[in-house]
Amino acid sequence: MIDKQWASATEAVADIPDGASLAVGGFGLSGNPMKLIEALHAQGTSDLSIVSNNCGVDDWGLGILLGAQRIRKMTSSYVGENKEFERQFLSGELELELTPQGTLAEKLRAGGAGIAAFFTQTGVGTQVAEGGLPRRYDGTGGVAVESPVKEVRSFSLGGTPHDYVLEESIATDFALVHAWRGDRHGNLIFNKAARNFNPLAAQAGRICIAQVEELVEPGELDPDCIHLPGIYVHRVVEVGTGIEKRIERRTITEAN
User: What pLDDT is attached to residue 255?
Assistant: First the structure.
């Protein structure tokens, strides 16, 4: 029997070194692996290169690592909810590889599948393909690092030729993900929007660490309901159902 359960988040992340690359699940603040992020923050790991859809907010999600200046580079799709992110990026303290959301998802999926690169139409005719997007500023308003020019080729898909840009896939040293339910073999089920990036991040990590709200015995999960098979998961930590969950913005309609 392969028992992947670890006693605590602290133990599960203890071997993540300074300078590591991480794929981190979450969509907005939905499905953030907060206990793992907090444990990583507590142990002082720094100089991290993180791939995630976004970087949380100033005091939650990956924002707590950012606020402590533990992140060297972010590869993300959306960075608009974090003022400290803006400050660090514009001051030259943080490198950013801004990536279209669907392309980022496929980069992670392809990396987990062992596919080194792929062609996509997304970004053709823009700076995504033509280069020149600021990745790091110099602190005085100038650009220190720009995105490179990417290869563009024409393919006839369905009989009509179109241009496609070559995107390199992503594989990381570790992955941190959050799941609703899991078993000790690492099979995971995600809940609603938390499914958006967590399975993809899990696949991209050489070592995947999953926090789960409810941990069950192997065989208790319906095989047809499993979103991510345990072959992608190496460590599982049960964090309970009472963990704090936040959203970025609450929009309500006043009663008539």
Answer: 74
